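User: Hey, quick favor. My workstation is busy. Could you predict this chain's structure for me?
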Amino acid sequence: MKTFRMILALSLVVVTGFGVQQFAEAQQPQTDGSQRDQLRIAAQQICPVSGQKLGAHGKPIKVKIGKESVYLCCKGCLNSKVNPQHWSTIHANFAKAQHMCPVMKKELPQKPKWTIVDGRIVYVCCPPCTKKIDADPQTYLSTVDALYSANLRK
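Assistant: No problem, here it is.
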């Protein structure tokens, strides 16, 4: 898992050179309080800027960083830079919460492949699975939600 975090941090290092504000959506950042948001907040666990536990400073704020939608712990983090270590931890948290490929229903490998669907990172066991997700994204996002729900209860 440590190797996975390092590779992911290096592959996503481009994000860390920019402040969140540079990537934040034009609209007022917020969460809509949906079940999907709550699952993603629980899976993400920490703020990509401060590393603080989400919810520790009030309702987390949903923003878009690059192609991904993530949550910040507070408005103060909107004008700060993403910490590469926290970014790596967040992706490891998402992979751990997902645990299984939503297509093949088998455990994710140590270095899973991934795709971004509607702002969400989805981990898969192999590249052909990303094509299946692209063909029916909502079905597989629902499957990922179910995986998060089951794994976060443990």
